[in-house]
Amino acid sequence: YQSLIRAERLVDGLLGRGDRFIAVDRFDYDKDCGDDVVMTNPSLLAVIDPDLGGTLLELDYRPADFCLSNTLTRQKEAYHHKLTGEAEEAEATDAPASIHDLVRVKEEGLAEWLVYDKGIRRLFTDRLLPAETNMTAYVANEYEERGAFADGRFVIEAVDAGESEASVTLSCLGAVATPAGNVPLTLTKIYRMNDRDASLTVEYLLENADGEPVTVKVATELNLTLLAVDAEDRYWTGGSAGQTRPRLKESLEDDGVNQVGLADEYFGFAVTAASEPSSTAWRFPVYTVSQSEGGFERTYQGSCMTFVRSVTVAPGEPIQWSVTLSVKGNKEKS
Question: Closest Cα to residue 224, out of 326, 325, 302?
Fold first, then answer.
């Protein structure tokens, strides 16, 4: 990613783009036979994927040549059964044991970290959860997905690009599951970016088309990576993090906050996520369990920040909120 992002910045120079520009391109970026939208300014490149929840497929912080969205989704691997004991015993054989048949672990309790994601981990994934869902259940993926927006297909309603600002409007007609049946809901997302700032805002509108009022938790999930989970120079900021600089291996829960974030002193930038209005923020590391020549080990794959709010959506009473993701750097690459 570092080399690719740097190459793109060099191309900007050849195209005569200065320190202020905004570009919006619509094409099939990920080759899945559906249009994506790429928003670019001198500081950020954001790739919007309408076909998978209207999420961000990629987010690059260009001054540091750093891909913030370089995360990995947790999936079941064929060798995980060696930690859980689910496999049937192999037939006896005189053949020498393969290195792949040996079970070495680099830490105890690795089976507890075998958590598999419900969908691809991206930025601005939107979930509808039962009102009683707590952070413990969310981290363990032991919750019920009541809506269809997280992996729903959004329609590109409008792409507007001016000289200094651009916006992309997406919408999805979905539903929320209730004991009485499904209630139709429409979610509209508007991505906004200007011609200079390392900042991206998503404005939300959740509408009840014609059903009974429903009460749910709306979760806006952001998955990013700073490449190290237990380093002194990568840490959580905002909320209960205060001035203590807790490392990214810590899990934090804050109620009634407007912004939280994480900082990377090694690469020289900090990321802030701001919610309007204020909400509950859940933050935790995401690990996979992989097998190497040295044995089974837990590997950091990203940091999850999720804003959660309880809402009642009634006909004619749309719910609005916004989330802004900003990056502030203290050094830039040439």
Answer: 302
250 by Cβ neighbours in 10 Å (0-12 / 13-18 / 19+) ranks as middle
DSSP class of residue 247?
B
Phi, psi dihedrals of residue 256, rounded to the nearest 5°: 65, 45
* Residue 207 DSSP symbol: E
pLDDT at 319 over 70: yes
pLDDT tens, residue by residue, 196-254: 999 999 999 999 988 899 999 999 999 999 999 999 999 999 999 988 999 999 999 99
Inter-residue contact 258 to 275 (CB < 8 Å): yes
Q: Coil, strand or helix: which one is 120?
A: coil
- Contact by Cβ (8 Å): 219, 65: no
Which of 17, 73, 64, 68 is CA-nearest to residue 40?
Answer: 17
Using alpha carbons, list the distances in angstroms from residue 99 to 291, 292, 294, 296: 11, 10, 10, 12
Place 72 in a pLDDT band, splitting at 50, 70 and 90: confident
For every residue of 164-193, DSSP letters joined together read SEEEEEEEEEEEEEETTEEEEEEEEEEEEE
Q: Which two tokens stand for residue 125?
A: 């994934």
125, 55 Cβ separation under 8 angstroms: yes
Residue 323 neighbours by CB under 8 Å, 6+ apart: 124, 201, 202, 204, 220, 222, 273, 274, 275, 276, 307
Angular region, 273: left φ>0, alpha ψ -120 to 50, beta rest = beta
For the chain, helix (H) and strand (E) counts, in that order, are 3, 16
Residue type, 97: A
Report CA Rg, the chain.
21
Residue 207 CA: distances (Å) to CA of 202, 221, 228, 302: 16, 20, 39, 32
129's CB contacts (< 8 A; 6+ apart) are 138, 143, 144, 145, 146, 216, 217, 218, 219, 308
- How many angstroms separate the CA atoms of 217 and 58, rounded? 26
